[in-house]
Write a structure and sequence with these properties.
The complex is a heterotrimer of chains A (about 80), B (about 375) and C (about 500). Chain B has 13 helices and 16 strands. By secondary structure, chain B is of the alpha/beta class. Chain B has 2 domains: about 230 residues, 3-Layer(aba) Sandwich (Rossmann fold), CATH 3.40.50.970; about 130 residues, 3-Layer(aba) Sandwich (Rossmann fold), CATH 3.40.50. In chain B, helix 3 runs parallel beside helix 4. The longest helix of chain C has 28 residues. Helix content of chain C is about 35%, strand content about 15%. In chain C, helix 1 packs across helix 7 and helix 14 crosses helix 17. In chain C, the strands form 3 sheets. A 7-stranded mixed beta sheet of chain C has the order 3-2-4-5-9-8-10, sandwiched between helices. A 6-stranded mixed beta sheet of chain C has the order 12-13-11-14-15-16, with helices on both faces. The chains are: A alpha+beta (about 80), B alpha/beta (about 375), C alpha/beta (about 500). At the B-C interface, strand 1, helix 1, helix 2, helix 3 and helix 4 of B face strand 2, strand 3, helix 2, helix 4 and helix 10 of C.
């Protein structure tokens, strides 16, 4: 949860790493280049998508680009 | 009770509506079209749906949809249509969906003709679709039974959560006889497993897919348990003058009517012959038939097919007694006199043909 | 304060317990478009408050397991048949939201007929058509929408038009029909197209909620595995390869002008059904309602056993004649049966029926040895004359048959039925003349009771008087004939 974070961004994106299949579509979709693939592997062996921690506008395009039902949650300030 | 002179095909529809059936999905085909026509007339009036589908494939899948929401539903057709429905019937059985299907048999294979035959026995009774399943099969031999067995088919279909088929030949469908209908209609019990588009049934799932081998095995065993239950207590049959019969003739549907007349005439000539008529073709009344083998010296099966039910008769008799065969096909129907001759011939020849194969018997008979 | 704005829709299960193995993710491959479409659908169901009303129909294809994910009523159905299933669901549950979710093989190949006719009927359902130009579930075979030259496991050298035909354009095809309300093709290859797809799918669902009729959204959807490209490259693949074949856009939209497209059944109480069927003398079928309700009735004559064959040309009303006899017999508490010869010969050829009227239960409804033959044309007489039992009766239409039967062991009435009927007013009533002659000769049924049946079963009022007079004239003819015979001691 982004509580306690600096609240200068308009949005915040959370990737539930175990639900991610590492397809990279969120990275492709994000207009502010806020996503990247983690160096780490999740339990299923995927480099999961990760929010870089800044720049999110809460636009939600990554949510719609992501094929997994619950892998991405987008918060808005 | 009101008596009405009515076609067997139309009696089916009145009975269905009295059974609380809410929808009919079908495709025209002779000699079953009157069923769809009667359905088109009465279903909308009685607060139900009639829809002429684009094919029998669509009809049976519409039935699948209607059964899924838990309403009583039906379709009707003849052999070629039933062939197209087999996929859907397998899905219905796999998904444990009750429905009633009426097959008014005509001549085959292929386009055959529209005259009566009983050549769908294998397809219907043995299951023409894929996978481990059975359908309940009821075989009426009068317009009254078109009504009674349709009512029963709905009841059994619900009780076993399985398709039930009323298997009649063109004669039974096309003829008119007085029928006494019940004067009250039935409100079927609601089905807790159905998907009704409401909060209560939201978690329900209608499916025939069990992707893991373990699950599918369990599912098939569950179905099998139902079938065993049906097999042990649902068999129906009619015995006519079999108590002292040396010869038992076996036939269903229209054939049983002709046989009955022939039995009476043979009895007048002093021949001890009786009739065994299976009413449920699945489950087939094996035990009841085998009991007759204790005293009957031989059996004569008569069918309007090349010899299909005879296989079940042989299974019942288990080689204890010779089983003869006589048939007409292509829409040809034996006369009472013709069957009387067969009975006389059998009683004169006794065991001569005991060891002949079915094919040989067939050729002999022809 | 941050608030969750875009999150897993509630119409998805929180955890996919129906799915074997991993309960967190879908069974779809990485980058597969099904997940995106599922999400749009689930979100719309949430937003429209329709979760409890939704029935999701998933046929065979990659989305066969949609019931793992959607927390709504679910039906898994046969390959291609979802529109037929959905039709019946919607007819039974008009207030539900019925979604038929189909792939390209399912909808455009094996289920071509079902979708065509559901669309043509304008069924008030929503169809989501996922077009990824390949059979995914079975491992990458050619789909009806596979592109020309596209390599699949069943087109290893690429799809060849001469052998495999062209990619099927479903949205265009269905748009030629009057039935559908709304058809749009969308794609999922960038943020813009995803937004458009979302809008279209929501509209297709909204249409159904408002009862506007059949809506279909075709979605060009990525299948990276099937296409052998990465998920990111699959987006480009749609744009470069699919778009030229499958242009995006609205192909039909009558949403605004169509209303009340939901079929609703008449509200009928179950206890009223017998009346509607004419079974308890209340409403409905007049003829049935009248049975035993009126008209003269006589007790059965003792030991009646008539087996009749009534034969002639199709169109002479001989099946009707047989029905009148059976109906009258039934009303006199006799056992009866009526059996038509049916089929193509009914039209223009010969038609015959078998009627049994008996004091005892009827065995075979087939009459192979008639006690009475009514032959209304020459072929019928020739064909059936020899079947009549010795001592039986043959009534033949001497207007149309120029020679009497050869049989000498039966009674014969040469009845100029057609001429007599013609004199009365219409040759068409020859059947009624024959009926009258039969009764006049045999007394097998009470005449007044029979006339009552003729009255209740003659549908055309204009014909009634004619029919009654024809019966009378046949009756008198037979009586006069009998009197003459007795006079001459024949």
């Amino acid at each position: 949860m982004p509580e306690g974070k600096e609240k200068k961004d308009r949005g915040w994106t959370e990737v539930h790493s175990e639900e991610c299949k590492g397809c990279g579509l969120c990275i492709e979709a994000c207009p502010v280049c806020g996503m990247h693939l983690s160096d780490k592997l999740n339990g299923r062996g995927y480099h999961f998508g990760e929010y870089q921690g800044h720049g999110c506008t809460g636009c939600g395009v990554c949510f719609y680009a992501c094929p997994e039902p619950g892998a991405i949650t987008v918060f808005k300030n | 009770m009101t008596k009405e002179l009515i076609k067997g095909n139309e009696a089916v529809i009145k009975a269905a509506l009295l059974a609380g059936c809410k929808s009919f999905y079908g495709y025209p085909i002779t000699p079953a079209s009157e069923i769809a026509e009667a359905a088109a007339k009465y279903f909308p009036l009685a607060g139900g749906t009639f829809l002429q589908a684009e094919s029998e494939v669509a009809s049976i899948n519409m039935v699948y949809g209607a059964a899924s929401v838990g309403e009583r539903t039906m379709t009707a057709s003849s052999g070629p249509g039933l062939s197209l429905m087999q996929e859907g019937i397998s899905y219905l059985a796999g998904s444990e969906l009750p429905c009633v299907i009426v097959d008014i048999m005509r001549g085959g294979p292929g386009l055959g003709n529209i005259a009566p035959e009983q050549s769908d026995y294998h397809q219907i009774v043995k299951g023409g679709g894929h996978g481990n399943y059975h359908t309940i099969v009821l075989a009426p031999n009068s317009c009254q039974e078109m009504c009674d067995l349709t009512l029963l088919a709905f009841e059994m279909a619900d009780r076993f959560r399985n398709p039930a088929i009323v298997l009649a030949d063109g004669f039974i469908g096309q003829m008119m006889e007085p029928v006494e209908f019940p004067t009250k209609a039935i409100e079927p019990e609601p089905k807790s497993w159905a998907v009704r588009g409401d909060a209560e049934t939201r978690k329900n799932l209608i499916t025939s897919i069990y992707i893991s081998a373990e699950e599918l095995e369990q599912h098939v065993l569950k179905l099998e348990k139902k079938y065993l239950q049906a097999n042990s207590r649902e068999e129906m049959y009619e015995l006519y003058r079999t108590d002292d019969a040396d010869l038992v003739v076996v036939g269903y549907g229209i054939v049983s009517r002709i046989l009955k007349a022939a039995v009476d005439q043979a009895r007048e000539q002093g021949i001890r012959v009786g009739l065994f008529r299976p009413i449920t073709l699945w489950p087939f009344p094996y035990r009841e038939l085998s009991v007759l083998a204790q005293w009957a010296e031989q059996f004569l099966v008569v069918e309007l097919s090349n010899g299909q039910m005879i296989e079940d008769v042989r299974l019942a008799i288990e080689g204890e007694r010779p089983v003869r065969f006589y048939s007409r096909v292509g829409g040809m129907v034996p006369t009472t006199e013709e069957l009387l001759r067969q009975i006389i011939k059998a009683s004169e020849e006794k065991d001569v043909r005991a060891n002949l194969s079915k094919t040989q018997e067939f050729l002999w008979a022809v | 304060m941050y608030a969750q704005t875009f999150q897993r829709p509630r119409s998805f299960y929180g955890q996919f317990d129906r799915k074997p193995g991993d309960h967190l993710t879908t069974h779809y491959c990485p980058g597969c478009g099904h997940g995106n479409i599922h999400k749009i659908v689930a979100e719309a169901i949430d937003d429209f408050g329709a979760q409890d009303r939704t029935v999701f129909v998933s046929p065979v294809g990659c989305s066969v397991f949609a019931y793992y994910y959607f927390d709504v009523g679910n039906l898994q159905v046969a390959h291609g048949r979802a529109p037929a299933v959905a039709t019946a669901v919607k007819r039974a549950l008009p207030d539900s939201l019925v979604i038929s979710y189909q792939g390209d093989g399912d909808l455009a190949a094996i289920g071509g007929n079902e979708i065509l006719h559901a669309a043509n009927r304008g069924e008030d359902i929503t169809v989501i058509f996922v077009n990824n130009a390949i059979y995914g579930m079975t491992g990458g075979q050619m789909a009806p929408t596979s592109l020309i030259g596209m390599k699949t496991t069943t087109t290893p050298m690429g799809r060849v038009v001469a052998n495999d035909g062209f990619p099927v354009r479903v949205a265009e095809l269905l748009s030629t029909l009057e039935g559908p309300t709304y058809i749009e093709r969308v794609a999922l290859y960038d943020n813009k197209t995803r937004a458009k797809a979302r809008k279209a799918i929501r509209k297709a669902l909204q249409n159904q909620i408002e009862g506007r009729g059949f809506s279909l959204v075709e979605v060009l959807s990525p299948c990276p595995t099937g296409w052998g490209v990465t998920p990111v490259d699959s987006l480009k693949w749609i744009e470069e390869n699919m778009l030229p074949n499958f242009p995006l856009g609205v192909f039909k939209d009558k949403s605004a002008e169509r209303e009340h497209r939901t079929h609703r059944r008449q509200a009928i109480a179950i206890q009223d059904v017998p009346g509607i069927l004419g079974l308890n003398g209340n409403a409905g079928n007049e003829r049935s309602a009248g049975i035993l309700a009126g008209g003269p009735r006589t007790s059965c004559p003792p030991n009646v056993d008539y087996r009749l064959k009534i034969a002639g040309f199709g169109g002479q009303g001989l099946l009707f004649l047989g029905r009148l006899l059976a109906e009258a017999g039934m009303r006199q508490n006799l056992h009866v049966s009526w059996l038509p010869s049916y089929g193509p010969e009914m039209r223009g050829g010969t038609a015959n029926c078998h009627v049994n009227i008996s004091t005892t239960e009827i065995g075979s409804p087939l009459v192979s040895a008639p006690t009475v033959l009514i032959a209304m044309n020459k072929p019928s007489l020739d064909k059936f004359e020899n079947e009549v039992v010795g001592g039986g009766l043959i009534i033949y239409d001497s207007s149309l048959i120029d020679h009497p039967p050869a049989r000498s062991d039966v009674e014969v009435i040469a009845l100029p039925a057609t001429e007599m009927a013609d004199k009365i007013g219409s040759a068409k009533s020859a059947n009624m003349v024959a009926l009258g002659a039969l009764i006049g000769k045999t007394n097998m049924l009470d005449k007044d009771a029979l006339l009552h049946v003729v009255r209740s079963m003659t549908k055309k009022v204009a014909l009634l008087d004619l029919n009654l007079r024809a019966v009378e004239s046949g009756f008198e003819f037979a009586r006069a004939n009998a009197a003459e015979e007795s006079l001459w001691g024949v």
